[in-house]
Amino acid sequence: MLRTKSRVAHFALAIACVTLAIAGCSKKPSPPANPHPEPELRSAKPARPAHPSPLGKLPPHHAGKGPKLAIIIDDIGYDGSAADSVLALNFPITLSVLPNLPLSTEVADAAHRRGDQVMLHLPMQSEGEDAKAETVELRVGMRATEVNQILTNALASVPYVVGVNNHQGSAATSNAALMAELMPALKKRNLFFIDSRTEKTTVAYDAAKKAGVRAASRKVFLDDVATREAVITQLKLAAKDAQRDGSCIAIGHPKPATIAALADAQPHLAALGVQLVFASDLVQ
After folding, report:
1. Of 142, 72, 139, which is closest to residue 111 (Cα–Cα)?
2. Could you give all domains of the chain from N- to C-terminal order, each with its CATH number?
């Protein structure tokens, strides 16, 4: 009887040992302490945001029926405060940004985030021997490879571009051979062209249409005379052209007088039945 009890006790002890062994194997050992812990990962210091602006986005834009006016503001990229004043306008604006300036990329980013439209203000050769030349510009006599390289480099510094207009360029836009080299490069990139018409003898619009590039021409300059009253007069002229022709493109610059006139323009233009739109709405 004792022998039987002893066997039972030994058997129970053996089962207990097996159970403990299985439990010990299933428990994962704690990892050893790392004597050289890696530093806590931190997100990289954020880059300075593209030209900062406290403004929210524009409401969705839909070009309706009736007379339309597109306002292009040229020469953007030199001055951050001037760019902010343009971005503060409460209607659709097309900003034409000069390439390769300190603020070119930042302003284009800010305009795109707000919902405005970005164009490339492409430097071109002016008329006259004493005309001030840009550091890099399209010049009469350039071949397609040179034109394409200048355009590629310019677009690299101005993101979100949907179209191009000429900066200066009275000699360039009057030269049929140079315009014939430029327009296929725009066509390949699906960019439209707005002829700023800095010279009456321009052939740029005709060259664009011949190459199958969507295009339009400027009708009104807003601020040849840089006073608020003069800009208002030009806005009224642009509205009248839009009513007569169905559409009008006006070009101005980020001057204080221009911005002051534009800041109050929308209600007055709306009262005349003129809708403010982007440049892309008026190219054909």
Report:
1. 72
2. 68-281 (3.20.20.370)
